[in-house]
Structure prediction request, 185 residues.
Amino acid sequence: MKVKMYLMIALCFASVGAMNSIAVGQHPHPPQTPPEKTKGMDMGEMNKRGDRVMGFDHDKTTHHFRLSTDGGFIQVEANDAQDIASRDQIRMHLSHIARMFADGNFKAPMLIHDSTPPGVPVLERLKAEITYKFEKTDQGGRVHIMTKNAEALKATHEFLRFQIKEHETGDPLEVKETAILITRG
Prediction:
């Protein structure tokens, strides 16, 4: 009788241990990465996703996100003035982005960042209150985002601040009276 009871207890512990192993293996959160490695790995993965979505290499281009009193700018430039392929891919992507954003479609940034950037729900809802104008630059292009709607302006700034932080551009997080645009050439 004692042997049978000990076997039942052992079997219970074994079952609990097995179920715990299965539960841990199916846990929705990946194992914790040391904080000093997390950002670099995230940035690398984000850039890989961005290269696929945007159609050009992040290592060959430079992004800038500028806040202005009427909205702001998304600007991308080829690092090498002779890199016509990157320049043309940037222009094609940004002209497409201007049309998509004007339609309230923010799938591209969601795919790149693997999340919904701050401000996007408001930008989608107030799409009629915002103008997105594509402009060519010598080595790429920019999208000028403009609005007179206070809520849309706040959302635009939230979106651009997120981009500055995620892409680690070093661009100012505060609104400047006039945005400084980068032009080369």
Q: What stands out?
A: Confidence is low (pLDDT under 50) at residues 3-41. Residues 49 and 111 are 7 Å apart (CA to CA).
